[in-house]
């Protein structure tokens, strides 16, 4: 993980992705894994180095504006599959289930400039023209790449929105940085940003262990991944006059947020094998390690409810000793801060183009 401090943001706005991978892990589907976007970040980083663009991509944020999973409609939904060509002997080829979806997303990268010894930085006040050139080149490079396995289509004009890649300097003053972020986030509306909610998983585990002391994190994750309807008490504690019983999920009350189960990385199942020692590996020049997915909870939240850029961004963390390779996000809910310090309603008098829900 890079120790460079972010100096600017690089935004690829309103990308139209066709046939992205909708199966994010062995247990989840509906949106690509956050590791798909960190993988895109690293692949893009390698191409920037080849193009001699001196930018280091440090972390990535994802804002989804539209999604359409390719499934049949109905009470039970199945993925729309394709029929593969017949085998060389004329027999029918096996169908491999592939989940696909169409997306419109904005990707926000925190970047730093990689400088040779003694060179002057361009990512400073007054370097806007050079940063604009870099953003345009990044857009051209990204247009030739895959995003979560999907193909990029040309962006369509969006009234009042920037659809071309752009860069902006991160102010050093904390107050100015917050004010700049309030301006940037307007460009990502309407949409929803994916943030991490590991705290909800811990809360759900504590709730389950009140009834079952043997409950595990997997039990908590599965419990939080579904609606658990039960008879709800009357708000005033009295029996309903009509004799009807209200049903609902007491842990998913109105306004509790759009929480979802997500994969956040990988845990090692084996020791690291030297490059070339494992047969049929994808890359014989890179060490190989067998892993399985790590799961947590995330939340889709409107960007106007975020108050700092770091709440939006995901970064990679590696612990070789424990064999953990996972993504981290610094979002903290309002309830996690004392008296709501550092939080607001994501609003000011200039944000009158949008209606708070």
TrEMBL record:
Residues 334-357 are annotated as: Disordered. Residues 341-357 have a biased composition (Acidic residues). This is Type I-F CRISPR-associated protein Csy2. NCBIfam families: cas_Csy2 (TIGR02565). Pfam families: Cas_Csy2.
């Amino acid at each position: 993980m890079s120790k460079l401090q972010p100096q600017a943001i690089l935004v690829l706005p309103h990308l139209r992705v066709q046939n992205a991978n909708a199966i994010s892990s062995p247990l989840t589907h509906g949106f690509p894994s956050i590791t798909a976007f960190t993988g895109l970040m690293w692949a893009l980083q390698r191409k920037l180095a080849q193009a001699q663009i001196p930018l280091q991509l440090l972390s990535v944020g994802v804002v989804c504006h539209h999604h359409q999973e390719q499934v049949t409609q109905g009470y039970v939904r199945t993925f729309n599959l394709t029929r593969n060509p017949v085998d060389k002997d004329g027999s029918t080829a096996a169908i491999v289930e592939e989940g696909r979806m169409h997306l419109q997303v904005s990707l926000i990268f925190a970047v730093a400039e990689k400088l040779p010894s003694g060179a002057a930085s361009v990512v400073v006040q007054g370097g806007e023209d050079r940063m604009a050139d870099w953003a345009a080149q990044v857009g051209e490079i990204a247009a030739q790449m895959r995003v979560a396995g999907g193909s990029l289509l040309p962006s369509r004009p969006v009234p009042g929105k920037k659809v071309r890649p752009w860069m902006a300097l991160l102010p050093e003053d904390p107050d100015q940085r917050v004010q700049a972020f309030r301006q940037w986030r307007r460009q990502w509306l309407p949409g929803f940003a994916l943030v991490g909610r590991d705290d909800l998983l811990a809360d759900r585990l504590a709730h389950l262990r009140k009834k079952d002391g043997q409950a595990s994190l997997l039990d908590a994750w599965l419990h939080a991944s579904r609606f658990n309807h039960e008879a709800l008490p009357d708000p005033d504690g009295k029996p309903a006059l009509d004799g009807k019983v209200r049903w609902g999920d007491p842990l998913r009350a109105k306004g509790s947020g759009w929480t979802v189960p997500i994969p956040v990385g990988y845990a090692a199942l084996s020791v690291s094998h030297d490059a070339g020692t494992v047969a049929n590996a994808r890359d014989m020049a890179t060490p190989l390690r067998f892993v399985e997915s790590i799961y947590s909870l995330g939340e889709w939240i409107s960007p106007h409810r975020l108050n700092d850029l770091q709440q939006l961004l995901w970064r990679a963390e590696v612990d070789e000793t424990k064999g953990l390779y996972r993504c981290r996000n610094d979002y903290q809910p309002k309830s996690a801060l004392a008296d709501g310090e550092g939080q607001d309603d994501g609003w000011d008098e200039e944000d009158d183009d949008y209606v708070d829900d």
